[in-house]
Structures are given as C-alpha cells and as structure tokens.
Amino acid sequence: MTADEFVTQLAAQNEALLERLVPEATLKPEVEGDLTVINLLKVALKNEIEATEIAARWLVTTEELPVKLALARQVGDEARHYRAIADRLKTLGFAATTFDPLAKGYGPLFKYLDTLRGTVERVAAGQFTREAIAVVKNRQFIEFCEAAGDRETAALYRDIIEPDERHHHELGRTLLRSLATTPEAQQAATAAARRTLELAEELQNQALASAGIHHAPGC
Ligand SMILES: [Fe+2]
Ligand SMILES: [Fe+2]
Question: How far is the CA of 165 from the centre of ligand 1 (A)?
Fold first, then answer.
C-alpha cells in the first residue's frame, strides 16, 4: 500500500471508531464536582498542559526536521490554549493561577504517548489520532457551553482553539504521508492509533460507569 492509500485507510478506520465517542457521553472520569463549564475547563487545563509537554518532549527527541518544526508549533499552540482557558476561568470567577492541573499526576494517555519512541508512531498517535479525538470532543463541548448559555466559552473554542486542533490533525496527516512508507511503519502507525483510541474509549466507559460525565474538551 502506498503511504497515501494507507493514510486514507487509517483515517477511515479512526473515523469509524470515533463514532463510538460521539454519543452524548465522551471522556473524562476525572471531573471533580458538578458538570459545569468551570469544572470542564479545569479538565481542559490538564489536557492542554499534557499536550504541551508531550509535544515538547518529542520535539527534543525526534530527528526528522519537519516533525520537529510541527511539534514546535504545537508546543506554542497548546500553551496558548492553556493561557486562554486560564483567562476565561478567571473571568468566570475561578483563580486558575493557584490551580495545579497536574497535582494528581499525568493521565493514562500522556503516559502511553510518553512511551512511544518511533516518529511514525508519535505522529499517528499524538497528532493524527489524538487531535481527531479533540475535534470531536470540542464539538460536543461547544454544544454543552451553548446549552449552558455560555456563549463566550463556546466562541473561544469555536474561533480560537478548535481551528488549531484541526490544524494539528492535518499536520499529522501530512507528516504521516511522508513517514508511513513501509509495511512496518504502517503497522506501527496503526497500532499506535488503535491504542490511543482505546485509551480514549476506556476513559469514556469509566466516565459512563461513574455517572454520566461527558463533554470535556480535548486538545
Ligand atoms: Fe492540539
Ligand atoms: Fe490544545
């Protein structure tokens, strides 16, 4: 299979598996307290700092220059998202400056991504797949904010954060086309994408089991 054919196939497989995340309940067992915009934004801070840090770690330990540069841009974008969300929380009356989103440690997806050594796996999992999940989750979060009457948070996601996450996913697609050129690389990419989706789904199932927690944004 050519790299182009492979990426088209992987996108279709991801798409089919992502459907399972689409119903009402998405991710996030780690919301504490009521399901409010503020509590979900606190989860978003954790996602953004983890996305910033994994991209930064990979930037240092990835050889391929185009991937390095893509990761560098992503580090900046995710950190900017963190800041924008913290500012929004402040407006909503929550002092994000005194909040440590990593106080309870890194999440399972971060820990898995941190084990990946191959560039093709990193791009398949971290950019191509994780960012596709983010696009789905953010779409749901925007709807949640609108239903809750919080148009400003919805606009922050729709106009600023969402276009960046989509760009990260597209960057992953472009890079994967240049990296997934052998059967071995394609196999590694598929396995990494699968595991990423599995972890997302496991989180979702836990969330469902522990009482209808959903709508947390991704990055
Ligand atoms: Fe992102
Ligand atoms: Fe982000």
Answer: 4
Q: What is the pLDDT of residues 152-173, one digit of tens each?
A: 999 999 999 999 999 999 999 9
Give residue-wise pLDDT tens across range 67-120.
999 999 999 999 999 999 999 999 999 999 899 999 989 999 999 999 999 999
Tell me the ligand closest to 73's alpha carbon: 1
Q: Which of 195, 53, 215 has its CA nearest to residue 121?
A: 195
Dist. CA 48 → ligand 2 center (Å): 5
Q: What is the DSSP letter of 191?
A: H
- Return the ligand number nearest the Cα of 70: 1
Q: Which of 205, 217, 18 is nearest to 129 (CA)?
A: 18
Expressed in angstroms and rounded, the spacing between residue 77 Cα and the centre of ligand 1 is 7
CA distance 83 to 106: 19
Q: How far is ligand 1, taken at its centre, from the CA of residue 28, in Å?
A: 17
From first CA to last CA, the distance across the chain in angstroms is 30
How far is it, in rounded angstroms, from Cα 74 to Cα 45?
15
Residues 6+ away with beta carbon under 8 Å from 209: none
Ligand 2 centroid, distance to 23 Cα (angstroms): 22
Cα–ligand 1 centroid distance for 51 (angstroms): 7
Q: Output phi, psi for 212, to 5 deg.
A: 55, 45
Helices 108-115 and 37-61 pack at an angle, to 10 degrees, of 10
Q: How far is the CA of 219 from the centre of ligand 2 (A)?
A: 4
